[in-house]
Specification:
- The protein has helices at 2-16, 24-41, 66-78, 80-92, 94-103, 133-149, 152-173, 203-226, 228-238, 244-253, 296-300, 310-316, 323-333, 345-355, 360-371, 387-401, 477-482, and strands at residues 19-21, 175-177, 183-185, 259-260, 265-266, 276-277, 302-303, 405-407, 410-413, 423-430, 433-440, 443-451, 454-458, 461-465, 471-474.
- The chain is of the alpha+beta class.
- The N and C termini lie far apart (49 Å).
- Bound molecules: 5-hydroxymethyl-3,4-dihydroxypiperidine (IFM).
- 5-hydroxymethyl-3,4-dihydroxypiperidine binds at residues 51, 59, 64-66, 192, 194, 341, 343, 388.
Length: 483
Amino acid sequence: VAANQRSFLDDFWRRSDVLTEGAPLLQQAIRFSLFQLAQATARVEGFGVPAKGLTGRGYEGHYFWDTEIYVMPFLTYTAPQLAKNLLRHRYAMLDHARRRARQVGQRGALFPWRTISGDEASAYFAAGTAQYHIDADIAYALMQYVRATGDADFLARYGTEILVETARLWADLGYFSPRLGGSFVINGVTGPDEYAALVDNNTYTNLMARENLRLAAGAVEWLAEADPEAHARLVARTCLGEAEPANWRRAADMMYVPYDKDLGLVLQDDGFLDLEPWDFENTPPEDYPLLLHYHPLVIYRHQVIKQADVLLAAFLLGDAFSDEDKRRVLDYYDPLTTGDSSLSECIQSIMAVEVGDDLRAAEEYFVDAAAIDLADVAGNVRDGIHIASAGGTWLALVYGFGGMRDRNGELSFCPRLPERMSRLSFSVRVRRSTLKVDVTATDATYTIVEGESLGVRHLGEHLVLECGRPVTRLLVLERVARR
Ligand code: IFM
């Protein structure tokens, strides 16, 4: 057993280690997070990843969207078999999700907000079941896995069915509003920010639903072309109507996104600007997290945010936002964000790297995310570690300072290192290649260490990488000069 464990760990560190230079304590926190991810996911066969991993009783062992949005990218890019196991597990709960959709009066499938067995276990629907975005989060993670691995077989056998049933949920949940010129609106949902509940047109939900609808239509069309027999089985299993994919596309194309022209701001939801500003100045530090000191009904009436919401959409679906939109989103919502959820700071860090002028804020958010359990920053480590933040630490390193983006199957990089990091190096597995990325204060080196050649982008420049032939490029020049 000891030898098996050793070989598992050797293999894990070879695939997944992230190395930084310049701050040994930070490196220790990074390794701690990675180790927690390994412990929580090494044997996910027929199980999900609980919000506390296997380390404590917090959240009663339930798992949430934390898995798909915060942990799965790490697995998809370093241990794709484990990502696949988790997606297979979601597929195994599809019948539960179909039943749940019927229970709440909808078509398609509604995955549980929190669960162990596949049944919904949240007690408070406003902050639980109403987080319909879980469906789109699963769809997003699924396609990220398929694009990164090229696992068309998974898409054909399992993925398309999940996409069909989740798209159906959205098509049924929203409607084309005559008052808004026929836009597709989705009312009465709760987005990622749990300090707002049952709102209309939560931007994160609408944009993720739009993606889900398009992915489903695309997958059905692809399957009809690539494997007509599998397509026929899918149609039979799901009673898919011929007109459904076109309707999904229409809903996606007409999706409503609330926007305030005067502020030039993508809104968190329709009513966000009408809420009373929270009195941050007179809120003493000991009143945080607010959820432990104020009634939810009070919190819901205010412009105060628990965790990244529009900002998360701007990260996951960056192409839906202009650079200016992203900057405004960060500038407007960041001061309103308490970070009372451990799912927030890693995303704030990533977006502060992408649009921030200097990296101090990004660095501070990152340190908080990486140290949350080792330093007990949230003061509740006795309930177990925060697995989403462990995954978020990897996200902040790879997508934040590494500047990786993975849209439509192509990886691009725009690295920027903070002051206390003189080097950052990590590996990602993409289809049949392992790519090592090594960033210093002045340049980035890309090497295929194993497998086929691969095209990537560095600051927009297309690079064709051959196995064993490193390619080095400078980071943004004026930033290098400032150091
Ligand atoms: O899934 C999260 C949610 O987004 C915020 N509250 C805690 C949950 C479990 O980590």
